[in-house]
Amino acid sequence: MSHGTFLQRLTEGTRWAWLAEGYRAALPEDLEATVMDLDARDRYHAKQGRSTARVRFDSPRGELSVYLKRHERLPWSARLRALVDPGGKHSPAAAEWAHLERARALGIAVPDAVAVGERIGPWGRLSSFLMVAELTGAVELNEILPSLAKTMPAPEFAAWKRSILAEMAGMVAKLHQSYVFHKDLYLCHFFLDTTPRARPGSRLTLIDLHRLGEHRWSAPRWRRKDLGQLLYSTYDVAGIDDRDRLRFWRLYRRAVGLRRPRRQAGMIRAKAERYRAHNR
Prior knowledge:
The chain is built from 9 helices and 11 strands. The chain is of the alpha+beta class.
């Protein structure tokens, strides 16, 4: 991984890419040179210079499905920082790559990073990409809960929810105990593994860690934001009731040893209500 000299980055432009060894054989040999121009339209979404799409690679070397995130219009502050400090992970893709590894080191299940890279320069340009492996056989919790509520016998569904709530509370507590906060902690960012290989205690994967950050001195603020987002995202989801919300809160606050939990709960509910009012 070479970033070239400052003069090269400024006048010619340089690029770097990292490919996970376990996936390298399934990726095109010219990925680093072609990825930003790749025509990807499956589940394509673009907004304000960034895009996300599902890409499938089929070759004699293997088959692989990934989600490709690309960023092409970045602020001048990020461009200048990358020019001066090219190893600093100033682009969104490089930052999210670091966030994935940070969460994984804490014991949080996150998608595998397949490839990441940047183009720095010339003349202050900056673009980046990140590929993460598709979670085959996994479904967002907010989508599968209403379905299971209709098809599972009530006692079985209640027991299943208790086990999932314990797993979810444990994941969030691990993050927060390390002063790490997701900042986009909605129910749809928890994916449930529905394949036969799934085992209790390891069925959930947390996605979209682009905003992840560590905050020791302002931890209460970010805790309220995370938990307020999560609470808000459970409203109007069939299969979730107040008992489930209370059970999650009890498991979470015990795991983190939260002081003054009643006051904290009130502030989190107020935060969730503000999200609901804003989104109306």
